[in-house]
């Protein structure tokens, strides 16, 4: 268990960050590859995948991906 456990539990079901959603709404280029460093519970990763991006998601805390 890490100091991040409570955070992952709190945000696990939240949608992608609003800053990402706004950026994607203004993106006029083609989809491509994205790197989600510190992806946590993968909420931004899932949004990128849903919009057709290829995503590599990594996090130092394995528990984040299982939250």
TrEMBL record:
Gene3D superfamilies named among the record's database cross-references: Vaccinia Virus protein VP39
Residue ranges occupied by any Tellurite resistance methyltransferase TehB-like domain in the UniProt entry: 32-65
Pfam family, one: TehB
Superkingdom of the source species: Bacteria
Protein name: Tellurite resistance protein TehB
Gene source species: Pseudomonas lutea
């Amino acid at each position: 268990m890490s100091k991040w456990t409570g955070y992952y539990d709190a945000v696990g079901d939240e949608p992608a960050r609003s800053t990402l959603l706004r950026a994607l709404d203004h993106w006029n280029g083609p989809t491509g590859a994205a790197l989600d460093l510190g992806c946590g519970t993968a909420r931004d990763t899932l949004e990128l995948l849903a919009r057709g991006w290829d995503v590599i998601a990594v996090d130092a805390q394995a528990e984040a991906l299982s939250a």
